[in-house]
Amino acid sequence: MMNNIQEQLSHLDQLKAQYGALPVLDESTEQHFNRHIMTDMTYHSNAIEGSTLTLDETKLILNNQITVSGKSLVEHQEATNHAEAMRYIQTLSRKAPYILSEAEILSIHERLLAGINYSWAGIYRQQPVYIKKQSGHIHEFCDWTEIPRQIIALLQWLRESTLHPVLLAAELHYRFVSIHPFIDGNGRTARLLMNVVLLQNGFPLTTIRVQHRQDYLEAIDVAKQSGDMNPFYQLHLDALLESLELNIKTHQENIIWK
User: Distance between CA 156 and CA 166 in Å, rounded?
Assistant: First the structure.
């Protein structure tokens, strides 16, 4: 399996070089495409966490500032917050080896929960969190008093790791959700952190899609239970391939996204 992953990484590096050499889109086409990516990524990331907004409803909220009948104010706020957090991470996407700071992680989370729960926004949890798995097994995340130390250790690992950037982004994603430093918003924060690493290394924004939610959760569980990261890596490789191909096609054919 690892040989296959290495072959896929080589292919992704080739596509990245092609992506990096693409001509700049005209301003209108670029705006349409960026809006499409923001809406798509916001919809999928929130839907993974249980939002009932459809993709079209997310478009109405983000692009037209329209309130969708029958949907909660929290879901509306989650959509606008995620879009704001996406804009924020793009201001952080300096080239590697720039490394995220703890303050920037907290700022991402604060943006995600703004207007929803200010007492949790940008603040580490101060109580234990358990999750009951489908198997009946109860998993306890790390003691809340250990969270600051574990985040500092995570950032140190990020600075020292020699993993390929795509695997680095995936493993940061996994390690962050395994710490589970917040009461809410851990998955969304982790997927944004993953994208910071991808952007820093010349890759485009990449979306984990809601239709892969079960595979996503199972891959996290496999990594926790056995230490096998390959299923989780594969999920990211597939998502990044889709993103690179979409970006290349959009630039080559000057596609207008509505």
Answer: 18
